[in-house]
């Protein structure tokens, strides 16, 4: 087995990820629409009016690393556009970035509310840099895609980056190359 194939899992893995995102109604959520200084736009019992976060994180907070910003293609020829404020897995609409944590190597995005689930849900996407796997430069994992709030997404156990072939909830990380 070549090093290039150590992450490959069959199309069923990506089909499951796409299905989960579509089930959650992955669409562009409104940006940070509240004014943190205005108590009328905060729910003191639930935290931030937009994210449910007690820390008031906004889209684009923290540093978005250059490694994961741009246009990419994964192992399955699915394309992505990732900016400081949005994560888009084409052809689905973009998801709004709520928080970047470069030190812990994850981003939290907001899903669109779904009729079958109460309130908005959040997805945590973890990444790792790849060395020795050209043309792939990094890989990602949808660590959790249905967190009730940002704090829950933030506190979920991280994926096992030391075993990228199976460290993403039992599946491989998806490898990314620039396009």
Categorize the overall geometry.
globular
Strand neighbour order, sheet with most strands: 1-2-3-4-5-6-7-8
The SSE string, one letter per element, is HEEEEEEEHE
How many separate structural domains? 1
In DSSP terms (H or I, runs of 4 or more residues), the helix count works out at: 2
Q: Work out the number of β strands.
A: 8
Quickly give the structural class: mainly beta
**Biggest sheet, in brief?**
8 strands, antiparallel, barrel
Helix content, binned percent: 10-25%
Which consecutive residue ranges, at least 5 long each, have pLDDT under 50? 1-60
**N- to C-terminal distance:** 26 Å
Average the pLDDT over all residues and give the rounded result. 74
Rg of Cα set: 16 Å
Tell me the strand percentage band: 25-35%
Write the layout of secondary structure elements.
Elements: H1 11-23, E1 70-74, E2 79-82, E3 86-89, E4 95-101, E5 106-110, E6 122-129, E7 138-147, H2 150-155, E8 174-178
Antiparallel strand pairs: 1-2, 1-8, 2-3, 3-4, 4-5, 5-6, 6-7, 7-8
């Amino acid at each position: 087995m070549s090093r290039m194939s150590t992450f490959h899992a069959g199309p069923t893995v990506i089909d499951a990820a796409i299905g989960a995102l579509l089930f959650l109604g992955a669409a562009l959520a409104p940006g940070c629409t509240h004014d943190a200084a205005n108590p009328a736009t905060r729910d003191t019992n639930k935290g931030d009016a937009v994210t449910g976060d007690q820390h008031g994180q906004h889209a684009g907070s923290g540093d978005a690393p250059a490694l994961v910003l741009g246009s990419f293609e994964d192992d399955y020829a699915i394309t992505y556009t990732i900016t400081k404020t949005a994560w888009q897995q084409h052809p689905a609409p973009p998801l709004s970035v709520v928080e970047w944590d470069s030190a812990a190597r994850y981003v939290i995005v907001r899903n669109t509310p779904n009729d079958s689930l109460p309130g908005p849900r959040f997805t945590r996407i973890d990444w790792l840099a790849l060395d020795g796997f050209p043309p792939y430069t990094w890989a990602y994992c949808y660590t959790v895609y249905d967190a009730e709030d940002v704090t829950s997404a933030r506190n979920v156990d991280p994926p096992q980056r030391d075993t990228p072939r199976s460290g993403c909830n039992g599946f491989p990380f998806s490898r990314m190359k620039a396009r």
